[in-house]
Amino acid sequence: MIDLETRPLVLDGGLGTLLERRGNDVSSSLWSARVLRDDPGEVRAAHEQFAAAGADVLITASYQVGFGGSIPDAEVETLLRRSVLLAREVRGPLVAASVGPVGALRADGSEYTGEYGLDVAQLRGLHRRRLAVLAEAGADLLAVETIPSPLEVEALALELTALGMPAFVSLSADSTGFTAAGALAEALRTAASVPEVIAVGVNCCTPARVLPALAEAPAVPLVAYPNTGERWDAEARTWHGAPAPLAETAPSWVAAGARLVGGCCRSTPADIAAIAAALHS
């Protein structure tokens, strides 16, 4: 049972960030999915670190894993199921199966724009099989995350309606796909209209973007897990800037309605521990 009423739940942090800090190579287009394929014990160990830090929810290493991407389709279903199993082996936290945008499968920077040149029907087709596998793999819910455009939100909402699996939907608030006035608010409403969606919100954005984004959301449980404030250069594949302490602003996200709170890129177990301490106090 997923209880968002008793207290806010703490999400984990940047899985790819932690895997890299543990000495793993995440520089390829597969990012953390490369470790999932080649060294699953490292993924389990990273999950364990986040759980020990106080995470109530572990998000699986399936963000870049999908049919029609860089990984041969013959391997995809095995890796999707493995991602859930590895998180499930950590006793205690809920397991949210990560569903990244189509752009994450392409590894070309389009996950920050949503400019794929695809229509709703094509987007539904690209997401359908992965959603079905993850729904059957034993996770507690789906983490539909970092979605960069209203069109992809629409496609995912239609697929989630037919799936019958609880999910949260989190949008990439800094994406150029949401620069038009009202686009983010409309997409949040679209996601929240699906009965299976238990919370909506934003991730993979700057901490300063969270509160304005949540203010555009409908009156439902919300999700907030931004990056630590550094800026990702998709061409150079590197980060610029200084990190921000997420725990200082996390209570304000809860006051705005967030019930699932954590960190995205660059956030570490130390950040999650600090968020957990701030929220529990």
Automatic annotation (TrEMBL):
Location of the Hcy-binding domain: 1-279
Sorted UniProt keywords: Metal-binding, Methyltransferase, Transferase, Zinc
Chain sites annotated for binding Zn(2+): C204, C264, C265
Any Pfam family hit: S-methyl_trans
Cofactor list: Zn(2+)
Gene3D superfamilies given in the database record: Homocysteine-binding-like domain
One record GO biological process: methylation
GO molecular function: methyltransferase activity
This enzyme's EC code(s): 2.1.1.10
Record's keyword annotation contains Membrane: no
NCBIfam families (UniProt xref): PRK09485.1
Protein name, entry field: Homocysteine S-methyltransferase
Underlying gene: mmuM
